[in-house]
């Protein structure tokens, strides 16, 4: 009997299986197991349609950082929808909340930034940056300066361009990456360092390789370098020590703009407001999304320096406009929610809480390092991953027919915890409002789960 048959015909699960196509879900096992239908939330917990409660250990998709029932966010949305429920930003039109949010973003940016361009998602924001860079270079008489550099294992989104910057094998399913999208080293010391190589030596090697790659491609053909401060969907990979300090001079030497993809790290995840601050990154362009609205509205943003903006204005002369934009971007309701979310993060204690509880979270995480099947416990701020290995010394993963991370995520669900498998790592990134007691609860559930699946004590 398939799950579809085992669910009541009018259940939400059966209706889902009959009607919905899910992204980033194993379509075969989904048909077997059915979806988890979530109906409501309270603080950092969500509840499914059967009344089972889960601690949301991933803040949804990293973004629902203020919990699932925040009265301030709900009120901000309702107030704006009553006042002026919809408008756009084309043809020089705009609504008040969009302007106020652009000002706020510039005010809190980690570096002096000149202008903000709104989108509906992180993918759209990164996609926008690529087009901006291409347009600037064409406008400046350098039409061949189009190549985009990112890193192996990076995640920058799902549009044609941003999937092309995503350094994962699955983009091959679409015949991507497009030509001219190149990948530099992944800065994961544990996985890629040579025997005995220190983090600093490894970072220096990444920088030397980058320099050689740029030389080989022709520095004048490279339009930009994209980097997440911490690789998120790659499995929470903080950069090796000194990594950005080593690669930034290389990019500067060739005048290649650095784009910080702060979609996950922005607004506090790493323990500073921006990942760029945590790692000393000096971006020319910043991409933000996710926590900006605490997940209560789709939203993304591109922040550009004055210098970048001036070049874009010059390039736009020939077309009399910047021929790019999204119908619902800069939506007044989304912007009102974002203004409130940022206020709650900055002024109502959410960011202070991240700073306070992060060391406690990391302590808990690090305890797993002694587990015989955990090769690396890594993280920063309120994000972490446990890399499961079959052989700790050789760092070899379990064979594909034993998808242990997937199994752990499934058993965690039974134990009332939502966590996420990424390859053979288990990722946790709880909401910013999590308390120390709830961190205990998260790791108690995770320990129980790991013991059940891997059969050994942490
Ligand atoms: C670093 C990074 N960039 C871009 C994206 C794409 O954002 P979206 O899913 O909103 O398109 C994500 C999504 O997880 C991300 O983690």
TL;DR?
This protein has helices at residues 3-6, 12-19, 27-33, 59-62, 71-83, 96-108, 122-139, 160-164, 189-192, 199-217, 243-254, 275-279, 306-316, 332-347, 350-366, 404-414, 436-454, and strands at 38-42, 45-48, 53-56, 115-119, 147-151, 181-184, 222-227, 258-261, 285-288, 300-304, 374-380, 383-388, 417-418, 420-422, 425-428.
Task: Outline the secondary-structure elements.
Blueprint: H1 3-6, H2 12-19, H3 27-33, E1 38-42, E2 45-48, E3 53-56, H4 59-62, H5 71-83, H6 96-108, E4 115-119, H7 122-139, E5 147-151, H8 160-164, E6 181-184, H9 189-192, H10 199-217, E7 222-227, H11 243-254, E8 258-261, H12 275-279, E9 285-288, E10 300-304, H13 306-316, H14 332-347, H15 350-366, E11 374-380, E12 383-388, H16 404-414, E13 417-418, E14 420-422, E15 425-428, H17 436-454
Parallel strand pairs: 3-13, 5-6, 5-7, 7-8, 8-9
Antiparallel strand pairs: 1-2, 2-3, 4-10, 9-10, 11-12, 12-15, 14-15
Bound molecules: pyridoxal-5'-phosphate.
Helix content class: 40-55%
How would you describe the oligomerization state of the chains in this entry?
Answer: single chain
Q: How many individual domains?
A: 2
Bound chemical compounds: pyridoxal-5'-phosphate
CATH class of the largest domain: Alpha Beta
User: Distance between termini?
Assistant: 37 Å
* Cα gyration radius (Å): 22 Å
Beta-strand content bin: 5-15%
Remind me, CATH topology of the largest domain?
Aspartate Aminotransferase, domain 2
**Which structural class is indicated by helix and strand composition?**
alpha/beta
